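Attaching the record inline, Q. Sequence:
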Amino acid sequence: MVDAPARRRVLLKLSGESFADPATKYGIDPTTVARVAGEIAAARAGGVEVAVVVGGGNIFRGISSSAAGMDAASADYMGMLATMINALALREALEAHDVDTRVQSAIEMRQLAEPYIRLRAIRHLEKGRVVVFGAGTGNPFFTTDTAAALRAVEVGADVVLKATMVDGVYDKDPTLHDDAVFFPELTYLDLINRELQVMDSTAVTLCKENGLSIRVFNIGLEGNIMRACLGEPVGTLVHGTATG
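Structure, as predicted:
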């Protein structure tokens, strides 16, 4: 199934791992960020309007910190700040590729980024700018996956592109199980009923209620970001039509 309408606006969800050193899975690796930015730049040059939501797990993980005894809300706010570091790193890398970029934050920090304003974000996209959304939804207890689904609906994206470290959606972790089964297509209900850990249920439900497709693909394969942005059938497509 091809998910490429005549006008294409995508919401790309990048995890913190997308910024990290491949060996340590931590911190920000300039070479990795430059590669990601280059593929986004190529997609933008191909006429795609690109918005990005970034995670922050390469710097700070709110979930694991709260599990270790930290107040959950405080841990989540610290995680939101980590996403802003990644957002600024991505902006610098995109600007180095001559891509006009704006960072919008759900938590006000005017010295670093614009506040999130939906109509302003849409206007930036219409003018050909890449918009990077940081600080999640601005509220604790919501994941950046939910932030990606929310922002995608708000700016009228055609699809959510969920970048992962595997080729798409499997029935179990393919890095641990050689017999893991790959799914080229799934419905929203398949994701929820099978409890496939791709995006949290709030994000999936939000996409389902708004008819917003999700494409899950491997960011580790060079060129996949550009191919996904351009609507090529990489990875797994999650949508509302029952699969065969």
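The chain has one domain: 9-239. Residues 9-239 form a domain with the Carbamate kinase fold (CATH 3.40.1160.10).

More tomorrow.
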